[in-house]
Amino acid sequence: MNAVKTGNAERMEEALEEFLESYRVHRCGILRLKRHLLLFQKNIETVAEELGMDLHCSDAILGFVRNVEEIRDFREISESLLKSLTEMTQEADAVARNRMSSFYINQILEYVQLNYAKELSLEQVAEHVHLSVCYLSNYFKNKMGMNFTDYLTNFRMEKAKELLIHTNEKIYRVAELTGYQNSQYFVTAFKKKMGITPAEYRKCLTK
Q: Each residue of 179-189: pLDDT tens digit?
């Protein structure tokens, strides 16, 4: 079942053929194989639960196992089980890819949250998550619906607004605490984003 869990369809097919061949070589009766397949049902349920996959794939296999008594020869068993296991393997591969995708975006967002107050670039993030800058740029925009620079600016501005409302920090300190070493640039960026300067924003919200 390892090949199924890892989404390796080619290895799964090889393993299934080896499994069935062992029965042919040892001239085991098909009845014995059917009994073993019924025990196999529990393994399938466990793997499906571990992967958190859509149960329609495992249901196809379980349905096959439940109806295995209707199958009369090795060839039919091989074809039916291969079809069902292939579906499950493809689903496992999709689940794995989705988890990996979520892993990367979570790593990126966490890195931004921890480092937004410092000088931060796409190159630094790419190095942190071990992706190329080009791939990360496209990946981030696809996942978040905006490019990395816009996301970082929005994130910093939200933090700046919190500081302006809930603290008495000077404007230059708010700039520093949100990753802007040049306070004038921060004021310009804030006004472009909010329509008013940081000082005006604070005055409006703290009246």
A: 999 999 999 99
